[in-house]
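Exercise 7.
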Amino acid sequence: MPLTPILKRTQQGLIAMRKLHHDTKMLKFISLGSGSSGNCYFLFTNSDGIIIDCGIGLRAMKKFFVEYGMHTSSIKRILVTHDHADHVKSVGSLSIDKNLPVYTTEEVHMGITRNWCVRKKIEQHNRMNLIKDVTIELGDFRITPFDVPHDSTDNVGYKIEHDGVVFVLVTDCGTITEEIGRYISEANYLVIEANHDPEMLSKGPYPKYLKNRIVSCKGHLCNEDSAMAVIKYATPKLRHVWLCHLSEENNHPELARKTYENVLRNHGIIAGADFKLDVLKRKTPTGVFELE
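Solution. The predicted structure, written as tokens, is:
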């Protein structure tokens, strides 16, 4: 009989766990959820780990960790991009449960405090402020937050370095600025938003005010604009791109991938040859990626 999805994930996790012990320095990445249902990413080594955004339930997160042979004790700190519920719903719960510091800008912390969707608030002693474009060293990582335009209280992307490897995350982004482009140009590994297809959005059920919000300069990136950002700013050192935060109503994983591939091809770039391209799942983990 075929394996159930949970059993498959558990076996994949055990295999991944065996591989983890072979290289204590390698950086690894897993997406636990990506989209308006909840965003949560885990970047880790054998001795350190960072959760980026906490928009999925704490119970689901713990279940995913078990299925992949990981331990929540490996989480040492939390980074937050912005204060919308699909990114911070469980941040207080996780911080309190594991006594973890939460790093983001002062403005985002204020937004989290005001957000009624965050039932458990971050305790004051675990609220750590970041300053945009100022690099700090935390454990195994060098972390630089940078400004990302979005209609939240504040919003940051992250450049995270470990042992010469550069990981960059850009999500909930209305416009690719020159500053964001500079960080994309430094990336070996890039998580970037590809939220919607303009035609699907235009013909879809959303009210006009919401459509206008999404396409505004502080809204969300469409598939083509996201691809154009990679074309304009990425360098040959880019090894892997993951498309994140796809809209359930206004996009589709295969559509996002095909649009990306077509736009890239029209500019002489071949996904799969010049760099790997994957679409992150909305509600299930991706499996563990090794970032060499």
